[in-house]
TrEMBL record:
Name of the protein in question: DNA-directed RNA polymerase
GO MF assignments: DNA-directed RNA polymerase activity; mitochondrial promoter sequence-specific DNA binding
Species this protein is from: Melopsittacus undulatus
Pfam families: RNA_pol, RPOL_N
Classification lineage: Eukaryota, Metazoa, Chordata, Craniata, Vertebrata
EC number: 2.7.7.6
Enzymatic reactions: RNA(n) + a ribonucleoside 5'-triphosphate = RNA(n+1) + diphosphate
Predominant subcellular localization, coarse grouping: mitochondrion
Length: 1142
């Protein structure tokens, strides 16, 4: 498996280093499952230097990596098979002790022995693995325990999907009869019950109920639903039905709960109802539960004052057609679109290359299909059920995506092995989910429900007199649909390690299939096939990673056979119809593609568990805000897109943020035959060339993807479904092309809905343009408007002649958005009635150092509030300039007292120098990080003496921190309180959690890397440093997200179009004033809550339930300063925090 592959890679690397010690090597051929290694040409940049420390490090990490994953095997099938083999071997040893096991393999000198199946040998291995294994089984709250449960259930689900209940029960029995029974929960037994219920095998159901009892587990509603479904398929089992119904009631359940709380597939619900009616003929399905209303004080007015939901400018028929197109797209899983990159003329060599590439797909298919199930079980026994879920071609299709996309854009430096493996494993999982939804009958029910949902959105839709939000209306339609499968699948997610192992198997097929003639570019060479891809092991910043690297000949082939199409996952493309509204943490966004409500780090499950434990009514505000953001329709600004594509295909323009092609990359210097002859300067120059080429390749491919997707939807209306990160910050689900992109992407996006500019709309367009230029930041809005009127000639020239005129727009901070705005102003000003001009252009309103705004409001800092525009002022305040002025005042005084560095800095302190540090102070930047920021800014000043860089940056960061402390007196106190609290919580072995004012539960996912821990430790420990440093910025981010969601919901009530890029809010020009008013009202409402007091109360209840001692200090929630027991404060409200005694 993957663990054994990594172990052998490390050992191969050790052997190479012992021989040559080069910075990057290609692995020799070793027996590797699941990835075959092949020999690649030796890299030219090899170094003759030896580094014995790397050898020792690799030996140590190989052993740690082996033991780490063996603590909890992620794949049950292999683990159980190995247990059986071990028992057989033990019996064999009794009969003949002299026989040596052929299953062990001796590693390189100095390395421990490793069993080829991943089991440690000898007493040391047993001692290292068995003890942690027991700890995992005993600690039911550990992540490892839950991941193991998840893996067991995913194996059982696979056998159930394959309609192999015998295999599922056999696997369950192996665990049930072993010491690992503790890992099994009721859900594992229920999966097997459902599998037998579909076949009507009542005896097996009865046996599984007895197994539950022997395991000390109580049947739950799903257990009884499976039993009744089975009985519903057997017409003469009335006595058994009565017995199960009596037992159900005895366990504290009611029959109605079966239909209210259980999830069903196919005809399961009908069969359960049929069984119930055999005993109670007059039984009727319970009515849908009355909807619950969020009790948050921030939204009482919102949920109590219902208004009709805004309509889209689409008819029911048009939305039905859009729905059908989106459904077809998702059923195909992938989509192939035209690339915007101009194609090269096909030379004979290019035609050869294209034919070769076409053969690779066929070879990949053959590799998968030529393996029989028995072969798969013998070689990949742990993956066997996952490789049987779909026909062979379903597994080959994901390989065609790397062939047409990843490999076409593969950097000569290689692509991360783990990234490719995770991507391929996820593609297989997505195809499985799609097939499962189709087989369960979800699709047909989805058609019916979405057909009704369209009535709420379409301009000619009929929803009756009642008023609903999208979430509420969808829930109503699902309840009315009655029978059929549930739209929310039972949890069937696959673990991160499983996805990786499956992806490694797919990569093995790819590496084996993609071969090329050695003489394709040089006929003089021997005509034999050689691998086009190699698996190498390389060092990156003191750590080693696996890479898939192309052969140099392969790179030339891909360059000659430039692909004119690009293939993407269907979830990477904006939706062609309004998204499914989020109704729970498991359901929303796409129709068939599996999407998480909350994004999380690979392998982290705490966020999902928190969301599942949270009462659904508490999540309603968050779900409704995400639905509001996702229901905004978009279209493409075609004139701007065409200009961008023309520059993209004309060597790009780095000044305009259009990446140039690789042909413009700097050429490396001529190299001598012996690389050891290079001096230090030449090596540095070579390294810089490689780094620049890699950056250019990455930026070019990124721009190619985004522009190609934009070109694909240029004549369509589209939508961006949203989800969020663990702090509650919202993001569009499509990863490449969305409004969170850079200046280029934002410039080509327009609202699909147009609105008249109104009396002040044109003025707001002009003010927005000046904001995009970066000019007049300190001037009032009226002066910015006057300046825009003064330069109207430049604006009109930019719009009329963007590439041939005076090009004023190119010298602005955001040139492409400025150009798009110039075009909109030109159209509006030339229209007969500018106020009646229909504008689709989004106007942005950005926060003034948003993090400091929240800190100033939390701490009630008057001076700080003025500097970040929280108080009324005649002119806009600029906190960066204010800090720069304060630092200059400190410098002047020090210079007068003879401080040398203060005298050197005269004339060099500016807004630009301090801005980044001021901006990141709120996000927890340290003095060390701030000093590096200052040094970077000073380096950009040509006249600043280099010999004073360190001393000057050290002096400046100190003065910036002092200035902020003086201006924002409470900010540092609040940060210190949050940091110290998080430190104590993490040191107690727990992660930091809190709940936002909107009721969203949050947990910080920072743990110590297990590679750094002893293999005997089975529980992940919180990373104290990350937990304490990240808590202040993450807490502020969660407040920022809360404010955005409140603004989104209240803008909905006002009938506004609203989207956001975190703290930057977008709307039509005619509604800017209304949005600004709502934004301010919700900020005041948010900070009128007892935010710090509620946080302290939550932490007291969660973390301080045991032996506690009170802290001698109190935190005043008005002035946010620490007050000792004997001291007093002028404010009356105090907030105490009790610290955990460690």
């Amino acid at each position: 498996g993957l663990t054994r592959a990594w172990g052998r890679m490390l050992k191969a690397r050790v052997k190479q280093l012992q021989a040559t010690s080069v910075p990057e090597v290609t692995l020799t051929k070793v027996e590797l499952a699941p990835l075959q290694e092949v020999v690649a040409p030796r890299e030219r940049e090899e170094s003759p230097s030896r580094t014995s420390s790397w050898v020792e490090k690799l030996k140590r990490e190989a052993r740690i990596q082996q033991l780490k994953v063996e603590q909890v095997s992620p794949i049950i099938a292999s683990e159980l098979a190995l247990e059986a083999k071990v028992k057989n071997k033990a019996q064999g040893k009794v009969k003949g002790k002299g026989k040596k096991s052929p299953k062990t393999k001796t590693s390189h000198a100095g390395s421990p022995n490793i069993h080829v199946h991943g089991k440690p040998t000898g007493a040391a291995g047993k001692e290292a693995v068995t003890a942690p294994g027991r700890r995992v089984l005993d600690n039911k709250e550990s992540s490892q325990f839950k991941i193991l449960q998840q893996t067991i259930q995913s194996n059982l689900e696979c056998f159930a999907f394959l309609q192999q209940p015998e295999e599922a029960e056999r696997l369950l029995l192996m665990y049930h009869r072993s010491a690992k029974r503790k890992v099994l929960n009721v859900s594992a037994y229920n999966i097997v019950m459902r599998s037998w219920a579909r076949k009507g095998r009542l005896q097996r159901i009865n046996y599984l109920f007895s197994m539950l009892e022997s395991a000390g587990l109580q049947p739950n509603l799903d257990s009884y639903a499976a039993a009744l479904e089975c009985l519903g398929r057997n017409p003469f089992c009335t006595k058994s039905i009565r017995r199960y119904l009596q037992q159900l009631q005895h366990d504290g359940f009611h029959v109605d709960e079966l239909f209210q709380k259980c999830l069903f597939e196919e005809d399961e619900k009908e069969k359960v109802l049929k069984a119930v009616r055999m005993v109670h003929p007059n039984y009727q399905l319970p009515p849908a539960p009355s909807p619950q209303t969020c009790s948050s004080s921030l939204l009482q007015d919102f949920y109590s004052r219902m208004v009709p939901y805004p309509k889209l400018d689409f008819s029911v028929q048009e939305l039905q057609e859009c729905f059908q197109k989106q459904l077809e797209l998702e059923m195909n899983n992938t989509i192939t679109i035209e690339s915007v990159e101009s194609s090269k003329p096909l030379t004979p060599q290019a035609i050869k290359a294209v034919k070769l590439r076409e053969r690779w797909g066929c070879r990949s298919a053959g590799k998968q299909e030529q393996s029989s199930p028995q072969d798969l079980w013998e070689v990949y026994n742990e993956l066997y059920p996952y490789l049987c879920l779909m026909p062979g071609e379903e597994y080959v299709d994901p390989l065609c995506l790397p062939l047409s996309q990843v490999l076409n854009t593969l950097s000569p430096q290689g692509e991360s092995l783990s990234v490719l493996a995770k991507e391929l494993g996820t593609k297989v999982y997505n195809r499985y989910i799609t097939r499962r939804k189709l087989c369960s009958g979800q699709l047909e029910k989805l058609r019916v429900v979405y057909g009704g949902y369209i009535q709420l959105l379409a301009k000619d839709g009929q929803v009756g007199p009642a008023k609903y939000l999208p979430r509420e209306y969808w829930e109503k339609l699902v309840a009315e649909a009655g029978f059929g499968p549930s739209l929310d699948l039972k949890n069937c997610s696959w673990s991160y390690m499983l996805l990786m192992r499956l992806g490694m198997h797919m990569l093995e097929l790819l590496v084996q299939a993609v071969k090329m003639p050695r003489n394709i570019l040089s006929p003089r060479l021997e005509p034999r096939l050689i691998p086009a891809l190699y698996h190498i092991y390389s060092f990156r910043s003191s750590s080693q990673i696996g890479l898939i690297k192309p052969h140099p000949i392969f790179c030339q082939i891909m360059s000659d056979a430039a692909e004119t199409t690009l293939t993407f996952n269907s979830s990477a493309i904006p939706m062609l119809c309004p998204p499914v509204p989020w109704t729970s943490p498991h359901f929303g966004a796409f129709f068939l593609n599996d999407t998480n409500l909350m994004r999380f780090v690979d392998g982290a499950i705490q966020h999902q568990l928190l969301l599942e434990q949270c009462p659904l009514v508490n999540l309603h505000p968050v779900l409704d805000a995400l639905n509001q953001l996702g229901n905004c329709a978009w279209k493409i600004n075609q004139p701007v897109l065409d200009i961008i594509i023309s520059i993209f295909n004309d060597k790009g323009n780095e000044k305009l943020d259009i990446p140039p092609p690789m042909s413009e990359a700097p050429k490396p210097p001529a190299l001598p035959g012996n690389l050891s002859a290079l001096d230090k300067a030449q090596r540095h120059e070579l390294l810089l060339c490689k780094k620049k080429a890699a950056e250019m390749h990455s930026l070019r491919v990124d721009a190619l993807y985004k522009l190609s997707i934009a070109n694909y939807v240029r004549d369509r209306v589209f939508w961006f479904p949203h989800n969020m990160d663990f702090r509650g910050r919202t993001y569009p689900c499509p990863p490449y092309f969305n409004h969170l992109g850079n200046d280029v992407i934002r410039a080509i996006l327009l609202f699909a809905e147009g609105r008249p500019l109104g009396p002040k709309g044109l003025d707001w367009l002009k003010i927005h343009l000046i904001n995009l230029t970066g000019l007049k930041k300190k001037n009032p809005l009226q002066e910015r408007l006057e300046y825009a009127n003064e330069i109207m000639e430049e604006i009109l020239d930019s719009a009329d002649h963007p590439l041939t005129g005076r090009k004023w727009w190119m010298n602005t901070d955001e040139p492409w958005q400025a150009l798009a705005c110039c075009m909109e102003i030109t159209k509006a000003s030339r229209s007969p009635d500018p106020a009646a001009y229909i504008s689709h252009f989004p106007i942005h309103q950005d926060g003034s150092c948003n993090g400091l705004q929240h800190y100033a409001a939390l701490g009630r800092d008057l001076i700080g509030a003025i500097s970040v525009n929280l108080m009324p002022c005649d002119v806009p305040q600029d906190v960066y300039s204010a800090v720069a002025q304060q630092v200059e005042e400190f410098r002047r005084k020090d210079a007068e007292h003879g401080v040398k560095i203060a005298q050197v800095l005269q004339g060099f302190i500016s807004r630009k120098v301090v801005k980044q540090t001021v901006m990141t102070v709120v996000y927890g930047v340290t003095r060390y990080g701030g000093r590096l920021q200052m040094e970077k800014r000073l380096k950009e000043i040509d006249d600043f003496p280099e010999e004073y860089l360190w001393e000057a940056s050290h002096y400046l960061v100190k003065q910036v921190f002092n200035s902020i402390k003086e201006m924002f007196s409470a900010t540092r106190d609040i940060q210190n309180w949050l940091t110290e609290s998080a430190k104590l919580i993490a040191q107690s072995g727990q992660t930091v959690e809190w709940v936002t004012p909107l009721g969203l539960p949050i947990v910080q996912p920072y743990y110590l890397s297990q590679l750094l821990l002893s293999p005997a430790l089975c529980c992940r420990k919180p990373d104290t440093v990350k937990q304490k440093n990240a808590f202040p910025p993450n807490f502020i981010h969660s407040l920022d997200s809360t404010h955005m969601m409140l603004t989104a919901l209240h803008c909905l009530r006002q009938g506004l179009t609203f989207v956001s890029v975190h703290d930057c809010y977008w709307t039509h020009a005619v509604t800017v004033d209304v949005m600004n008013q709502v934004c301010r009202q919700q900020f005041v409402a948010l900070h009128s809550e007892k935010i710090l007091q509620d946080l302290s109360k939550f932490m007291l209840e969660k973390y301080c339930r045991y032996s506690l001692s009170p802290c001698p200090g109190l935190l005043c929630c008005r002035c946010c300063t620490w007050v000792g027991r004997a001291k007093s404060c002028s404010h009356v409200h105090f907030l105490s925090f009790w610290f955990i005694q460690l």
